[in-house]
Amino acid sequence: MASDISEASPSTAELKLQFAPFSSALEAGFWHELTQKKLNDYRLDESPKCIKGYYYNGDPLGLPTRLTLEYSAFDVDGSTPARCCPALGTLYNTNTLDAFKTTDKKALLEKEAKEIWDAIQSGAALKDPSILCRFILLTFADLKKYNFYYWFCFPALCFKEAITLVRPPSVLDQVFSAKQIAALQDAYDGLCIKTGATAVPYFLIKYTDESVQMAVLGDWETFFSDTKKVTVGVYDPCTLSQHPGWPLRNLLMLVANQWGSKLDTVEVLCFRDRTLQGSRSIQQSVIFHVKLPELPNNSACPKSVGWEKNPKGAMGPRMVNLSECMDPKRLAESSVDLNLKLMRWRLVPSLDLDKVINTKCLLLGAGTLGCNVARTLMGWGVRHITFVDNAKISYSNPVRQPLYEFEDCLGGGKSKAMAAVDRLTKIFPGVNAEGYNMSIPMPGHPVNFSQTTLSQAQRDVEQLEKLIAEHDVVFLLMDTRESRWLPTVIAASKRKLVVNAALGFDTFVVMRHGLKKPPNTQSISTEPDSSPSCSSASSSSSTPAGAAPAVPGSSLFSNIPGHKLGCYFCNDVVAPGDSTRDRTLDQQCTVSRPGLAMIAGALAVEMMVSILQHSEGGYAVASSSDDRMNEPPTSLGLVPHQIRGFLSRFDNVLPASLAFDKCTACSPIVLDHYEREGFSFLSKVFNSSHSFLEDLTGLTLLHQETQAAEKLMFV
Amino acid sequence: MASDISEASPSTAELKLQFAPFSSALEAGFWHELTQKKLNDYRLDESPKCIKGYYYNGDPLGLPTRLTLEYSAFDVDGSTPARCCPALGTLYNTNTLDAFKTTDKKALLEKEAKEIWDAIQSGAALKDPSILCRFILLTFADLKKYNFYYWFCFPALCFKEAITLVRPPSVLDQVFSAKQIAALQDAYDGLCIKTGATAVPYFLIKYTDESVQMAVLGDWETFFSDTKKVTVGVYDPCTLSQHPGWPLRNLLMLVANQWGSKLDTVEVLCFRDRTLQGSRSIQQSVIFHVKLPELPNNSACPKSVGWEKNPKGAMGPRMVNLSECMDPKRLAESSVDLNLKLMRWRLVPSLDLDKVINTKCLLLGAGTLGCNVARTLMGWGVRHITFVDNAKISYSNPVRQPLYEFEDCLGGGKSKAMAAVDRLTKIFPGVNAEGYNMSIPMPGHPVNFSQTTLSQAQRDVEQLEKLIAEHDVVFLLMDTRESRWLPTVIAASKRKLVVNAALGFDTFVVMRHGLKKPPNTQSISTEPDSSPSCSSASSSSSTPAGAAPAVPGSSLFSNIPGHKLGCYFCNDVVAPGDSTRDRTLDQQCTVSRPGLAMIAGALAVEMMVSILQHSEGGYAVASSSDDRMNEPPTSLGLVPHQIRGFLSRFDNVLPASLAFDKCTACSPIVLDHYEREGFSFLSKVFNSSHSFLEDLTGLTLLHQETQAAEKLMFV
Ligand SMILES: [Zn+2]
Ligand SMILES: [Zn+2]
Known about the structure:
homodimer; alpha/beta; Ubiquitin-activating_enz (chains A, B); 24 strands
């Protein structure tokens, strides 16, 4: 039987039509549901059951022609996913492995083939052509070991001779004008609406240069006035350009049986309907012109084929062990994965999902921003999320901080970091979340009251250093400016990507910090842009060669490579600890417009994902507002330095600014002191007034020079 | 005693300094916590307890000088809200009403006054001036009826004679230059950091034209070189321009006691630090020049005053009954309210919060968009939220739909509408949420299979009509275009504000539908803009007078008044039911970038809130991208017609377009048929192909004319 299944190998004999067989795709959900049915419903009942799968005609080239069964397969009256075509099947679930092995597969196939043939002969298949695309599934569920044995069959009636191609296959847009293609698409959508189906598997087509008409199979006699030229259509799950998928086989048998003697040749449209990056195209549909062999005069059922080969290419059953993923938690995981894969398959084939999913994210702050960032990360499938916060949940939090509920506020309130972890686990048990209820020491906030406070600060610093080292991306989501200083320094030193978000009342900033070159390259790169990871992208940089920028980052510069971008403190000319500046942006978080944190949190994650898709990651040249009209640098779009949002105007701008050589957080002198002296340097910063950092970086001198210059100017 | 409390009435005798007394502000949370303490901790213990309140020096003019106690009052070592000044107090909680009444209030006050006086004399008050601003709270908690009796006292030591003003008070910016003001602000912030406090209650000041220096009270001797001119500062919670608040009283007593003989006059800065709409100002701080009376030579404690008057203006206790709000749920409500009020008090004094909070919102769709819209509405304090959805929660939903958790997916999944209601209640028990698990009939989706399906459709329509009538704003948040048609028609007919949001893969649209004029005005308004509600705003409208727009809405028109704006279907030249158009925007909701729904959901609510703040509501002229540089029409900013967002570019544009007179949803002919024929018209739409609506509105004719015109052009 195996030898009869036509393979999708390109061109063995040019003139024979060959069909790409279905591959069965059984989601873990299907086996979970089968287990439930077996335990609660079927028990020892081995009688055949009706089940439902579906296939899709919009996959990108290269994916196999899949027939998918998921947990919904047992709900035959349930809905089918949008734009997918349902296929009904018969499930034979045996009670023993022996019964599975000894089941007469030939008889099962012939029984099903006979039903199809009878429906063709009686005309029933004309009225309901879905019978032409049925399947058989033979299973045995070993529920002790969670071994599932199965064998799929997609019955196809065979002509005695080969179906010949009158001419080579053509892609639709080689044959149809743009106008005809648009009309064809219109006509198909109309047919779906008329029949109330998500997809029509088989249909009739009539067209002129001006218009395209479509009808269901049953309307053949009234639809085609002459049979010189007859076009039939099939919703085709195959992605190969030279071959149709399996569903066409039984349609051609029906056509031959019903009208074979009247037809000269038959034109076949394999309708493929792809939507990629938001734009729909049916252009890659394929047209075949075939001559059908004559059927014998007797009405005996033709020979049939259809049992699926196993992964080794031999005729035989398959087995899957699901002992690790039979609980609903695993089910949730595979559903979330499937959803993300759909995004890739249908919209952005070049998307590197693994890069996103495997990113370890450290969220400093579990308030309004932290909650929203965590939720968006979950949506992207990120599995490793760690929270740091020292606050407790208060009664006004849950309506704005979407990981907390009223109950979390009782009894003085749970720790935010811990409650956030609990919630993530409740949302998606597969997440790997951790919480740290700890403070982040801040400049100008002395820690030297006693030996106890000093040791505590040292432990906090060490913990934070360890956490930053263990993660890939650090999100700064606190509600004070000062608390961002220490993680900015540590992450800059460890070359970790930092994504920073801060809120005003109706404005926000979301930014990535500049990512310093690796320490080894930095020491030797006295020439500008000598780092190989940046040279290609920053070739057009307008930064003066070798000159460190002498003024606070300016957005006049374009094409700034990632390693030259500023941090959150680069634009400030005073050290953190003095809360005069940016006070409105940081300290009024609780009185922001409620939508603001959702927008900023979502943008922070989306910006991170876009950066991860860039081949240079955090070293990528910053996109600016001006780049909005240019070809985007990643499959997801721009990779800006900053997004500054203005809710009152519903506007965002994308400034980019250079690192400031006197920055109190990321300048070489600060990093150098931190790397050489460690906590003894940090504790000086914590315990001193802001002038300490300003003296160190030369900001004090700059102030004095500026004042002197001002005096000079106004003499 | 009462007669001794100086009142804040403006100018009785111009030369006497009078102080605005504190008003006690006890949040429900305070009484809740007191109840817990009494029940679990104090029991019959009547000994005095230390508690903590706080006051704020940034309230807008008109608010009383409040000393606030909330549930945190019992956690004396806990944190104080940002920029507020803590005040310690002594709680005397009696076991009986009789004990409350017979407590010797004079003795309590004198005891406290004596402690203050002793601290002044010993110099302890110099080291820790917080003793100068203490309070007494006498309470009795009747926990059977939840009656709370209380009397507040803010002890102040009195001079024998009046304190005289040397000259009239001045507002800071009448006396200080901008440079001095900036330096003053800087110096104060520096002092806060140095002392590690959220606010410094009392301080010393020295200034020149060029600089301002500050020090704590204890540094007096080293700080002031001569005492000819001495300036002291007080963190002043009063908002009146002619009077200082209460905290200054004991400071002046300290100054007189410590240095009285050396001082000629004292300059007092009442430091007031207001942040309004994101910009901080200390300019309204007030400067007084006072001459202090001499103190008697003996060290006897001066007379003291301080018991608060009751609401009738008499000396006596107050009582509050909290039987309705003693459970934690009420506590959550008052916390959420307080948070919103802070937004108004500190940032947007003209914000009409009640208008927002009392808006009844109907959410059609409880998926990604519905969940995010509901969360943002909760953040704004909206209490009445109703969901309509017919879907069940599947395993892939919780990571993207922030009202659901893994558990909601088990056993086939809960109804989204119902689960959303449960979740809102868990987040905020005070919400008034309802869910309807029902379908919305759609054009081109026949309902006439049987009498049962037809009756069901009729019931669904009636239910939807009822729901729309009962709500103020209708959110369209479904994932198909067709399902938006019926609510668009009903809401247009009922003149309800519609906010519509739809997602593509990385693009979205958020829009308000045009709000038709009320039916009675419409019949008589054949002249353009005769409606009084629109005439003022739309006077510069460039729409041709009286001419209905003949082409689908164009964004070339500016200043379109709300009643002329288009709906979701106005830009379409085919009827809903044909899902060719906008397919990518509606049908791929599940494969949107995860952050997109959060952004669009948040913007939909923020746009609604902005519209509600406009005096003309949904009739307001639409703001466009060009208006971003103009004076915004509301305190919250623009009121656009549409926000179209592009996540790949992090960009939003604000197109505005006119209603289309052949629109298949909001045109007069459709509304007229709906209003006259009701369900019999609707069922025709549901059961027919899209040509029915196109024929009705004249779209078919338009198509034919366009085709004829095209033919003519290409002859
Ligand atoms: Zn920096
Ligand atoms: Zn319309």
